[in-house]
Amino acid sequence: MSRDGQQYINEVRGEVTRALIPAITKHEIRQRVCERFAASEVYAFAWIGRYNPEHEEVVPTASAGIAEETLDGVSITEDSRRAELTSEAVRTRELAVEENPVDDPLYEDRRDRALEHDDRTCAVIPLVYEETLYGVLHLATDRPHGFGAAERASLAELGATIAYAFENAEPVANTDRAEREEAEAEMTRVPAESEQERRLYETLISSTPDLVYAFDLDYRFIFANDALLEMWGQTFEESIGKTLRENGYKEWHAEMHKREIDRVVETKEPVRGEVAFHHAELGRRIYDYIFAPVLNDEGEVEAIAGTTRDITERKEAEEALQESEERFRALITASSDVVYRMSPDWSEMHHLEGKEFIADTRESTSDWLEKYIHPDDQERVKEAIDEAIRTKSIFELEHQVEQVDGSLGWTFSRAVPMLDEDGEIVEWVGMASDITERKRYERELEQANAKLKRSNAELKRFAHAASHDLQEPLRMVSSYLQLLENRYGDDLDADAMEFIEFAVDGADRMREMVNALLEYSRVNTDGEDFEPVDCETVLDQAMENLQMAIDEHDATITSDELPSVSGDERQLIQLFQNLLDNAITYAGDGPPTIHVSAERRDGEWLFSVRDDGIGIDSEKTDEIFEVFNRLHAPDEREGTGIGLAICERIVMTHDGRIWVESEPGEGTTFFFTIPVGNGEGTT
């Protein structure tokens, strides 16, 4: 039980203890005790049974908060669970508890009655004083896990106090047969001495945690219990006969109570208030108090009795609860998410703020599953709930819901279990996000991806077929031109021979472009075959493929240490080869000098290929990655205009970026990135 819960139990205990003070007979004691318990918010009902040792039975004689017929015939000799629990308490002289009887299949026949009277957890407290059993007190609560260790200890002490009250009760005739028999037995005993009565009242008053005191009509204390003396830090002799101010009350406090005493004397009605002042040991505390008139035989006020209860923890809890509620309400207001509260077993939804996404629930409802969750997802939701309850862990799930307008939506729901100090779930608090802007997008994205895959596949088939279909006519054109030159070369003039040369050259360049287009289409875009690739090896292979060009132009290629990356080795070789070839092709007048490097930045590798060639106009750097785009005429520089487009496609396939920095005559540096992946090395 939480600290606040124990505080409330202590308050109930104080109420019951005070109820014993004006009680005279055993019957009055029983009835007042039952009424005080039933009037609290902690217990659903109470009944007290008188123990008859001769017949070894307990017969209910007083009750509150429950229909009388439910007590008829209940005794420890009967074959019922309540009788078994009572018998256990009588036999052991110890408190006995039965938790959640409504969930026990063995007692299905009494489930409806238990639910009707909130009889979820029961306790039987033996009323024993000096080894004499006077009866039992039966309490029930609707708390599924009530009667924790601290509560049991408190109730056991209270049971002894009630039994002591029975020991000193005054016998009286009663209309109830059992009470009359008891009264006759009591009449045979020696009447209690006034000293016994004094001990009774002193015990009851000293056992309560409340402050109990009395004033005379001159505002002087004529009584103060131990709790009040402890608060003052004074003895009884130091305090009695003194005024409020003489006992340390401040001026404003003393004057306030004097006015209230005057009002009680004038109206003969109690006065209730709340005040904060200093405790000798605990510091500033908050108290709730009642001043009541004590009337003489003529009906005149002869004294004023008072009780004061420390409600500091309760007020702090109320303030904390209010502050928490305000924060919770502010969170609900500020958030666009749905907020809900569920019972420990999710059988009831206590509250739901739907945020115009799903219908609000202001009252508890048990049909929330059918009301909100789509039939296709109900079983999946129940399975996730059962697992969360079993493990006392966070519930998380995406599922379909019925929206306010009746349409189908999607939500991501997350609920956290609220646990008590015993680790038991008392409630679930959850939030749910509308992910319908997202599920629809995911479906559209899936459809777009599927369409793109189909388009890519069709593009590959088209490029493959087109390249083969175009190669044959080009070969035929070249062959016939060469045949024309061989057969009729001596008969053709210089212009005709030049025309033939132009046509052959055009066919050859067309064949190169077709081959380049085929290579472009072969670049895989799904990344499914990626594996660790050593870029040192990739660079070596690219240089080997370009060895003739390197030797022809007397090119120098250097590099720093290069990392391993996750990728397609064939494509990466093509990437390095195209960039090196581009640097050689666009070199200046002297032999080209090229340097390759890499460094790790923000979760990716940044590669660079730098040359000292002719450079590129900065206004045209974005154009060079376009397919078939050339910055120079074919007779000026070789190339198909598709090599850098292939580079861009390869880098994009590897989830990277590529760009160029250059100025005319200052050389060119190509940069590209590849994300750091699993299994990669470092420089």
From TrEMBL:
EC number of this enzyme: 2.7.13.3
Ranges where the Histidine kinase domain occurs: 465-678
Coiled coil (UniProt feature): 431-465
Domain PAC: 271-323, 395-447
Keyword Transferase: yes
Gene3D superfamilies: 1.10.287.130, 3.30.450.40, Histidine kinase-like ATPase, C-terminal domain, PAS domain
Main EC class the enzyme belongs to: transferase
Database matches in InterPro entries: GAF (IPR003018), GAF-like_dom_sf (IPR029016), HATPase_C_sf (IPR036890), HATPase_dom (IPR003594), His_kinase_dom (IPR005467), HisK_dim/P_dom (IPR003661), HisK_dim/P_sf (IPR036097), PAC (IPR001610)
Domain PAS, chain residue ranges per copy: 197-268
GO terms of molecular function: phosphorelay sensor kinase activity
Reactions the enzyme catalyzes: ATP + protein L-histidine = ADP + protein N-phospho-L-histidine
Domain of life of the source: Archaea
Keywords: Coiled coil, Kinase, Phosphoprotein, Transferase
Protein name: histidine kinase
